[in-house]
Design a protein that fits this description.
By secondary structure, the protein is mainly alpha-helical. It has 13 helices and 2 strands, in the order αααααααββαααααα. A two-stranded antiparallel ribbon has the order 1-2. One of its GO terms (molecular function) is G protein-coupled receptor activity.
Length: about 350
């Protein structure tokens, strides 16, 4: 249950990479420690590889979700809808940034001659706006998932999400649109791609605050979930005479702890580099390696989502497979609570 110390050590470890970037090389300068060919391959090959991998992973989740919907002839439970929703945001981001980098990479000769290689205006501004929008979708969706899980597990509060879960998507879309629309003049061409302009400090500040708030939210929610599961396990073990029952509850707690740590770790790996990047930009520290790491790191969320999905659901689809439900839900005997019990499987299948 030592969740906070583990997360603190992981964060310190990631932040330590900031010291690997020498300030004399990171400061604005016309020279580069690499020749133009090496710089080209670092800047474009790495992000394109990560985005392509992420897109393949999201397509796998799309395909598996379609198979479950088609063969089971029923609505998909919440624990499987959330990975599908995350895959949508990951696909939108990676496909946009893949086009962004691929277009620039196709102008290699211009890059070697120090000419403009980005998309023409106004496509470049639209691309920069879209990337910020899709990243905002992803960040807010992660926060929404943690809050909904916390409400269902800790508060035992159930509410209808509406048709197509519009009660989740509507506030996310509205908030995500407010952020980039309030900074319309902040997007345009940079040296390598279309993104936020170097002088757009407002975007970096807002995004820094947003990531910190969402990180605090998911840590708060999932720590409380773990505490609740541990308390319920202790209460059941004190009244239960069955050793098998206690071992089952203990196993559920261990699996949930591992998945919670994985979920928070993915978010840290995904967005702590963005925090470092924003801090460097605000301090006028520039290094193209930081930008490469940020673009690639955001794709790690989608890749991690696919890995978790495969671990929970298996690589091959089996129509007879039963999703592992949360042990609290399995104690309910009423048949009309079956759908609610299936939705509760998010604790062990999606956190």
């Amino acid at each position: 249950m030592d969740l906070i110390p583990i997360l603190f050590r992981i964060t310190i470890f990631i932040l330590s990479f900031l010291y690997m970037i020498p300030l004399n090389e990171a400061a604005p300068t016309h020279s580069s420690p690499y020749d133009a060919i090496t710089e080209f391959h670092i800047v474009f090959v790495i992000p394109i590889t990560f985005h392509s991998t992420n897109i393949l992973g999201t397509l796998f989740i799309f395909y598996r979700t379609y198979l479950r919907w088609k063969r089971d002839h029923r609505s998909i439970v919440l624990s499987l809808r959330f990975p599908f929703y995350l895959a949508i945001t990951d696909f939108l981001y990676s496909s946009s940034d893949l086009i962004n980098y691929s277009y620039s990479a196709s102008n290699k000769s211009k890059f070697l001659n120090n000419e403009v290689i980005t998309l023409p205006s106004p496509l470049c501004e639209i691309m920069g706006f879209s990337i910020v929008l899709f990243v905002s979708f992803n960040v807010l969706l992660v926060g929404a998932i943690s809050i909904i899980t916390w409400l269902r597990v800790v508060q035992e509060y159930y509410f209808e999400l509406g048709k197509y879960d519009y009660k989740i998507w509507f506030p996310i879309v509205i908030l995500s649109l407010i952020f980039p629309l309030s900074t319309l003049n902040a997007y345009g061409p940079t040296k390598y791609n279309c993104a936020t302009k170097p002088e757009a400090s407002a975007v970096m500040t807002i995004f820094f605050i947003l990531i910190v708030l969402i990180l605090a939210t998911i840590v708060f929610c999932y720590v409380h979930i773990l505490i609740t599961i541990h308390r319920v396990k202790e209460e059941n073990s004190s009244v239960s005479s069955s050793n098998n029952s206690w071992m089952y509850l203990n196993n559920i707690e261990k699996k949930t702890l591992k998945k919670v740590l994985t979920y928070i770790l993915i978010f840290i790996l995904q967005y702590v580099p963005v925090l470092i990047y924003n801090m460097c930009r605000l301090l006028k520290i520039q290094n193209f390696i930081i930008g490469v790491i940020v673009s690639s790191a955001i794709s790690l969320g989608g890749i991690g989502n696919v890995i978790q999905y495969i671990c929970n659901e298996g690589f091959r689809y089996q129509s007879s497979s039963v999703t592992c439900s949360d042990y609290k839900s399995e104690t309910k005997a009423e048949a009309d609570d079956e759908q609610k019990s299936n939705d509760d499987s998010i604790i062990t299948n999606n956190v």
